[in-house]
UniProtKB/TrEMBL annotation, chain A:
Family stated for the protein in its record: Belongs to the binding-protein-dependent transport system permease family.
GO biological process: transmembrane transport
Alphabetical list of Pfam families matching this protein: BPD_transp_1
Stated name of the protein: sn-glycerol-3-phosphate transport system permease protein UgpE
Highest taxon, organism lineage: Bacteria
Membrane-topology descriptor: Multi-pass membrane protein
NCBIfam families xref list: PRK10973.1
InterPro entries xrefs: MetI-like, MetI-like_sf
Record organism: Microvirga alba
Sorted UniProt keywords: Cell inner membrane, Cell membrane, Membrane, Transmembrane, Transmembrane helix, Transport
Keyword NAD recorded: no
Known partners and oligomeric status: The complex is composed of two ATP-binding proteins (UgpC), two transmembrane proteins (UgpA and UgpE) and a solute-binding protein (UgpB).
Keyword RNA-binding: no
Chain ranges of the ABC transmembrane type-1 domain: 78-269
Automatic annotation (TrEMBL), chain B:
Origin: domain of life: Bacteria
Organism: Microvirga alba
Keyword Transmembrane among record annotations: yes
Oligomeric form and interacting partners: The complex is composed of two ATP-binding proteins (UgpC), two transmembrane proteins (UgpA and UgpE) and a solute-binding protein (UgpB).
Main location: membrane
Name of the protein described by the UniProt record: sn-glycerol-3-phosphate transport system permease protein UgpA
Residue ranges of domain ABC transmembrane type-1 in the record: 71-283
Length: 282, 293
């Protein structure tokens, strides 16, 4: 029989605990830094237990912002990030559920062509075509807009593939039954397909929300106004001002605030998150 | 695989496909083809006119020592992260696979870094190892090592590798754990009855059975390091010091934006596209799960 001795389990607990500590330590430091004033951090002897500046730091960060960099309240940045993440998640689900429905449930000329046109985009991350995409968005007058932040990122094959795969597992009898009952495509879509897909939709939503919230290169390129920047961009600007002038307590408070929404999503929707991750393989 | 029963419609299927196809054509195919076209053009010094120069941009690119340097940097960066993050993730996954009390909590506590943005991960590690105020940099400096990732390219690269690995472990851990749980217990028990110990079982049974997962994760991690670590690099080093942490993707960005060399940047984009397509093709060859068309 397979050994399950006490010592082997102790070793497992030990390895896992060390892993968890290493994983958590950088974040613990950021949380610590968000509770001290600037001087305590800069002199390089930050204590390893929290200080008493938390209320002051979070209040200033959210409502006022860093005095020396963009001067934009981080609350605004979080709102921008939230709108972008929601836009990307919802937009992607909408367009990909529709296109998967067409590809799976209709017969029409060029069906395979359409599928391949979408499928190939898996291979073209935004990073390899940044400047031409930037130029198109600029020509369309979409710089510094939410539409410009969201639209180019919602087209990708992941969602379509995921829904296609799921639709394939739905028994044909359901469609035949709906047809006998006289349901057209819209009825079938609304009353049968969508209710069955709810878990898949939720899983994709979780993954895409995190993906959207964490975007970096694209918002960096197309937002020029401070009022449009996202939190992930904002924090970088706080740190690259003259190094000695970096307000580390504000920057680290911002880092904590930037991590909270996506981490909460992973922790509280873990089942959906894992499902989404494994099924999109992304 | 095809459905037996289908709808037929002349207009409806196209209408359903329209939003996705329109966005795909406008934001994928058009810019990608523009990148290819631009890579054959050269702009004059003022960016007012451009002329067709054939493969001149590519030829120029392959004459630049910086380009080879960026290639080497990319290979070093991605292979270090792949080896480190896969090894750590596999170690943690094999431990978490044992039936432990509170196993679920351990899993939760290990997977959340997936949700942290690469740029934020970079900022966290920069703060921890900042030469003058970093909590972990002080002990290193106290040992007499002149630790300074802002001036020393090697130190900067170590910091990048650590933060990129930190973020990728959770993803690899999840897939390894799923892979381990899919191995039938009977196989392992049979080997145990035949008298092979845990270490031998791991290397002769578990590890070979995991190899599709491992292969998949190697490709995913390489793609991750190629593209998604842009945020980490930009936040920690900005490609410096002296270009020592400039990867291929970072160079596309820097040459196009800071250098204004759009033709050269486009040629680099095209080369990257070829690399991604090759990586994806390899991935599908060995992990033919996604598509049956």
């Amino acid at each position: 029989m397979v050994e399950s001795g006490r010592y082997r389990n102790l070793l497992a607990y030990f390895v896992l605990t060390v892993g968890i500590v290493i994983v958590a330590f950088p974040v613990y430091l950021a949380i610590l830094a968000s509770t001290f004033d600037s001087a305590t951090i800069i002199n390089g002897n930050m204590p390893l237990l929290p200080g008493n500046q938390a209320v002051e730091n979070y209040h200033r960060t959210i409502f006022i912002g860093s005095a020396r960099s963009t001067r934009e309240p981080v609350g605004t940045m979080m709102l921008n990030s939230f709108i972008m993440a929601m836009g990307i998640a919802i937009g992607k689900i909408l367009i990909s559920v529709l296109s998967a429905f067409a590809v799976v449930y209709f017969s029409f000329p060029f069906r395979k062509t359409a599928f391949w046109i979408i499928f190939i985009t898996l291979m073209l991350p935004v990073e390899v075509r940044i400047y031409p995409t930037y130029k198109i968005v600029a020509d369309l007058g979409l710089l510094d807009t939410y539409t410009g932040l969201v639209l180019p990122l919602i087209a990708s094959a992941t969602g379509t593939l995921l829904f296609r795969q799921f639709f394939m597992t739905i028994p044909d009898e359901l469609l035949e039954a709906s047809k006998i009952d006289g349901a057209g495509p819209f009825r079938f879509f609304k009353d049968t397909l969508i209710p069955l897909s709810i878990t898949t939709i939720a899983a994709l939503f979780v993954i895409q929300f995190i993906y959207g919230w964490n975007q970096y290169l694209w918002p960096l390129l197309i937002t020029t106004k401070d009022s449009m920047q996202t939190i992930v961009i904002g924090i970088k600007k706080m740190i690259t001002t003259q190094d000695a002038l970096t307000e580390w307590q504000i920057a680290m408070t911002t880092a904590v605030l930037a991590m909270v929404p996506p981490v909460l999503v992973v922790v509280f929707m873990q089942r959906l998150f894992v499902k989404g991750l494994v099924e999109t393989e992304k | 695989m095809e459905k037996r029963a289908l709808f037929s419609g002349k207009v409806l299927p196209y209408a359903l496909l329209l939003p996705q196809l329109a966005i795909t054509l406008i934001f994928f195919y058009w810019p990608a083809s523009q990148a290819v076209w631009q890579s054959f053009l050269m702009e004059d010094a003022f960016g007012l006119s451009s002329e067709f120069v054939g493969f001149e941009n590519y030829r120029f690119l392959f004459k630049q020592p910086e380009y080879y340097k960026a290639m080497v940097t990319t290979v070093v960066f991605s292979s270090s992260v792949a080896v480190l993050s896969l090894a750590c993730a596999l170690l943690l996954a094999t431990q978490a696979d044992k039936s432990l009390r509170g196993g679920h909590a351990y899993k939760t506590l290990l997977i959340w870094p997936y949700a942290v943005a690469p740029a934020i991960a970079g900022v966290l590690w920069m703060f921890m190892f900042h030469p003058s105020l970093g909590t972990l940099a002080r002990p290193i400096r106290a040992l007499g090592l002149d630790w300074n990732p802002m001036l020393n390219g090697k130190h900067a690269m170590i910091l990048l590798v650590l933060s990129a690995t930190w973020k990728q472990i959770s993803y690899n851990f999840l897939f390894f754990l799923a892979g381990l749980q899919a191995i039938p217990k009977s196989v392992i028990e049979a080997a145990a009855i035949d008298g092979s110990g845990p270490v031998r079982r791991f290397w002769t049974i578990i590890f070979p059975l995991l190899s599709p997962t491992t292969f998949f994760l190697i490709v995913v991690t390489i793609v991750y390091v190629f593209f998604e670590t842009f945020g980490i690099i930009d936040a920690i080093t900005g490609g410096g010091p002296a270009g020592q942490t400039t990867t291929l993707v970072y160079k596309v960005y820097a040459d196009g934006r800071l250098g204004g060399d759009l033709g050269g940047s486009a040629a680099q984009s095209v080369i990257l596209m070829v690399i991604v397509i090759a990586l994806t093709a390899i991935q599908f060859r060995y992990v033919e799960r996604k598509v049956q068309y």
